[in-house]
Amino acid sequence: MSSKIFSLQGQGLKLDTAADIEPHLANIDPTIIEEIHFGGNTIGVEAAEALAKFLEKTEVLKVADFADIFTGRLISEIPQALSSICDALKSKTSLIELNLSDNAFGGRSVDPIVPFLTQNRSFQILKLNNNGLGPAGGVVIANALLESAQLSKSEGKKSNLRVVICGRNRLENGSATAWADAFAAHGTLEEVRMPQNGIRMEGIEALAKGLAQNRLLKHIDFQDNTFTSDGELTGVEAWAESLIRWSELEILNLSDCVLSAEGEVPKLLEVLARGSNPKLHTLQLQNNNLEAATLALLTENVNEKMASLRKLELQWNEIEEDDENLENLDLALKARGGKLYVTDDDEEEEEEEEEEEEAEQEPEEPEEGVKKELTAVDKATDDLADLLNKVSLK
């Protein structure tokens, strides 16, 4: 491992005190560390304080990965430990990424992150996936990001924030407006992933308007949130209007989002089919009540208006297996090296192909007999070299 990367990833260490963690830090030079990975261990208050002293000495730190570091910790421990770690990172202008995913903060333990989010305006990537934030915790984080954007603007500087990942956090509608305001204020986002948050139509509509101010978006993932309600389509319509602004969009995941209330063609897919996002190569639309008319629309436009599309997921929609458009769409994607996913078997097939490719790339160990033969040849070569060294020409 490079001396620039310090990793205790996945070692299952229980670090309670300074004495527990110091042996792991003792021979590491913090001034040259660019990445630190501590996931899969559990850190107590005193150990976090010792770690913070180490982090304060870093000079070129780029990646701070502290996902899954509080398993088994009391709710009273987490804020203190988190505060030590985040405060040590506030002034790190070299820092690019902070990952605090898979830590059970809940809404009660997020306040220690706020000083970092507002004062460190150099970082670009924030990962807060599966933290149990809830609407209240989501508002705290979103308001901190909003304040950060406003401070940057007051200083005449452009925001550095590029990536926000905040899925599986039960953010719901209660925090959606705060997130929308934060996203709009930054305007620099390239990747936003907020799947499985229970956000419903009103919140989805607000987020579409906030994200619309980020014209450089390349990757959007809102899987398993709800875009329509009781036949109302304003969420879908709001996203249709915003799609036009995302000319750089490459990946769009709207699976399990109830895009179609009663089988109608979603307006946002009509916009896509008109070529609103010419760089789109991955479109995920599983389980959205889509019917034959939507499939026909996609097939009709896949070659001209959606020429970059390579991966299209349509599993669990209201589409007949013998619909001729499926075959035409499949052929169109295959012709450009892409793939259509209609059943779970398609996905399993891809996973098997990927595993086979990985196996082929791994260097093969020679058979035992070959090993012995090579060893014998090597020994004979060495013996001959020794004899030649003893020969002198007169």
Automatic annotation (TrEMBL):
The record ties this protein, via Gene3D superfamilies, to:
Ribonuclease Inhibitor
Q: Which SMART domains did the record assign?
A: LRR_RI
- Name the keywords, alphabetized: GTPase activation, Leucine-rich repeat, Repeat
Q: Which Pfam families match?
A: LRR_6
Residue ranges under compositional bias (Basic and acidic residues)? 368-381
Which GO cellular component terms are attached? Answer: cytosol; nucleus; perinuclear region of cytoplasm
> Biological process GO terms, please?
nucleocytoplasmic transport
Q: Where do the record's region annotations for Disordered lie? A: 339-381
Give the compositionally biased regions (Acidic residues): 343-367
User: Would the keyword Repeat be found if you checked this record's keyword annotation?
Assistant: yes
Check the record and name the InterPro entries matching this protein: Leu-rich_rpt, LRR_dom_sf, RanGap
MF terms from GO for this chain are: GTPase activator activity; small GTPase binding
UniProt keyword annotation of Transport present: no
Q: Which PANTHER family match?
A: RAN GTPASE-ACTIVATING PROTEIN 1
Q: What is this protein called?
A: RNI-like protein
What species does this protein belong to? Leucocoprinus leucothites
